[in-house]
Amino acid sequence: MNLPGAEGTPRDANPSLRMLIFGKPCAGKGTLASKLTDKYDIYSVSTGDLLRKHILERTDIGKEAEEIVARGGLLPDELVLDLVAQELDTLRNKNWILDGFPRTQRQGRLLDNYLGKRNLPVSLVVNVDIRDDVILDWIADRWVHIPSGRVYSTSYKPPKVPGFDDVTGEPLTKRPDDTPEIFSRRLDHYYAQTSPLLYYYASRSPHATRLLNLDGDVNLLWPTLDSVVRESFLTVRERPPTRARLPGQMQVRSSL
């Protein structure tokens, strides 16, 4: 399904990858994004990582955000956009995936306005659409090495030694939020906020942005996404096998 860009923005014959990825909680969107940034020369921009960096470095945005968080408040959309915009301004001719923003229709419009003024519209919106019962099975099978964040599944990615991390040999644990009750609440939040945001992208007039809906056979999620990126975004290059991640390039943390 083709997804539109800003009105009057022509489709680029050889666009850069400027990608947003959405999906239900625990649907594997973080894992898919990590696979892309591991295989290709793509920058991962995580709003969570950026926020922690600004707070640690005591920047103006960081100090304002820290005060709001300390009061238990929610960060204003404009502040988060400023956070993201400062990073994207350094990546004007690069391929990137934005993780954690936007989350609402209003945030989507703010991001569109920012990118539209720079003639750099989002070029790919990915929706990881997995059935609820499949995700519940994944949650039941999931085990985590808390210190590193490494995730295992007894059904499709088991540890070499049952119950223990492959790298450190330390015990694996269940995440406290891996329960049907908590998943149900997170799913309600997703339908309330993210579903309207997807409708916003799908309802725009077709120009610069493509919508990729990943559903059906879970084994085809990565091959399908990999194929679309490889064939549709010719500016994306594979990383040499021994090449280290560039300074300042953030790794998307898996949410699976």
Automatic annotation (TrEMBL):
The keyword Kinase is assigned to this record: yes
Every Adenylate kinase active site lid domain range: 142-177
TM helices/strands, residue ranges: none
Pfam family, one: ADK
InterPro entries: Adenyl_kin_sub, Adenylat/UMP-CMP_kin, Adenylat_kinase_CS, Adenylate_kinase_lid-dom, P-loop_NTPase
Entry keyword set: Kinase, Nucleotide-binding, Transferase
Domain of life from the UniProt record: Eukaryota
GO MF term (any one): ATP binding
Family per similarity comment: Belongs to the adenylate kinase family.
This protein's name: Adenylate kinase active site lid domain-containing protein
Native species: Pisolithus tinctorius Marx 270
